[in-house]
Specification:
By secondary structure, this protein is an all-alpha fold. Helix content is 73%, strand content 0%.
Length: 281
């Protein structure tokens, strides 16, 4: 007769010690840098009531500013997703003279002050600029239009896509592509069926970062937008305008709406990114 004895299984120790300490520092750092400022925005109403909040939220000028910010940021992020993939592909798959300089220029929008970028883009795309003067006789205006805002957001958002896609593309195993080629698969089919599913998660990450940066961008857009209410006025500029008018309650309401929209959009994009990863597996 076999007697089965039960014994308590000791809890497994973590491979890397110090989880509690590092987790505590991480939560503290996140609270001080991110959660505490957002909590101050939520709880410091500065005289903002629900009636005032609803009046600001339904104001035509506020809604127009959000429409401009969201549409231009989305258009710029989508364009950056395509162009960023092409740039990352060229940097990883090809060797050419000046490659290191070309790679360093990708990070220039990170180091360049946004006000300098705004002034440069305005001088370039205005009616008297090098590029704007070519399109102005055709009746196409770039500066002081939503098109100019989109170009400015494309400029500051392109590094996010390239730097998220480039490492994944470098680590991608080329043996699978070569095997597909030996089996008779064309290049387009190999890219769509093998390469693109691996690049979709970093592409979505780069799109989310560029989109989030575009919604809150101020310095590079304030010059080229023209700041025309109901047409080219962005939400961050409207917040600054209300602060200059000492309308702290109105500025807080616009900021809360912008925070809510940004959080919901990032939540949707992160959920889509997880679904793509599960589908790829």
């Amino acid at each position: 007769m076999n007697v089965v004895t039960t014994s308590t299984v000791p809890s497994r120790r973590r491979l890397l010690p110090g989880f509690g300490l590092t987790m505590g520092y991480s939560v503290l750092y996140l609270s001080l840098v991110v959660l505490l400022p957002l909590s101050a925005l939520l709880f410091n109403h500065t005289g903002l009531s629900w009636g005032k909040f609803w009046d600001v939220a339904t104001d035509a000028r506020v809604l127009a500013s959000y429409r401009v910010s969201l549409t231009t940021a989305a258009a710029a992020a989508l364009t950056d997703a395509v162009l960023g993939l092409l740039l990352a592909w060229v940097l990883v798959r090809y060797d050419f003279p000046g490659k290191r300089l070309f790679d360093a220029l990708i990070d220039l929008p990170f180091a360049l002050p946004t006000a300098v970028a705004g002034v440069s883009l305005t001088a370039l795309y205005s009616a008297n600029g090098w590029i704007g003067s070519l399109f102005d006789p055709l009746g196409l205006r770039i500066a002081f239009t939503p098109l100019g805002i989109t170009l400015a957001l494309m400029f500051i958002g392109i590094p996010f896509v390239v730097r998220t896609v480039q490492p994944v593309l470098e680590d991608l195993d080329r043996d699978v592509e070569e095997a597909a080629a030996t089996l008779g698969a064309r290049r387009v089919r190999t890219f769509v069926r093998i390469v693109l599913p691996e690049l979709l998660p970093p592409l979505l990450t780069g799109f989310a970062l560029a989109f989030a940066r575009g919604i809150g961008e101020y310095g590079s857009v304030v010059f080229i937008s023209g700041n025309m209410p109901m047409r080219t006025e962005i939400a961050p500029l409207l917040i600054m305008s209300k602060l200059e008018q000492y309308d702290y309650a109105g500025a807080t309401a616009v900021a809360l709406l912008l925070l809510l929209i940004s959080f919901l959009m990032l939540l949707v994009i992160n959920s889509l990114q997880r679904w793509v990863r599960k589908s790829a597996r």
